Amino acid sequence: MSNQQAVHDHIRKLVSDNDVVLFMKGNKSMAQCGFSHQVDTILQHLGVDYKDVNVLADVAIRDGIKTFSNWPTIPQLYVKGEFQGGCDIVKEMFQSGELAALLTEKGVPHTKKTAVA
What CATH number should be reported for the domain holding residue 96? Predict the structure, then answer.
């Protein structure tokens, strides 16, 4: 098994074992880039419990997530094993109410339903 395959298997396990996973720079308590911070803030606002994966802590994960999703940037959000997008897409989904609707549809617990605070 190649190293890339092993990394992809690890990523696949993370996204299948957790309802919501955010591959980000930093972690929940300290995002280390503005885009990761924006997605973290959106998830926190919606009251979503999620698994944070700090790509800065592991270069194999940082590179592997990009090939796994075929998406070149970080952060990357997964809901119920499905890639949703990066910061801009998540922000648009949040503002339109689509993200809250997706969470509800997928049975992911969250406390707020809309983008309005």
Answer: 3.40.30.10
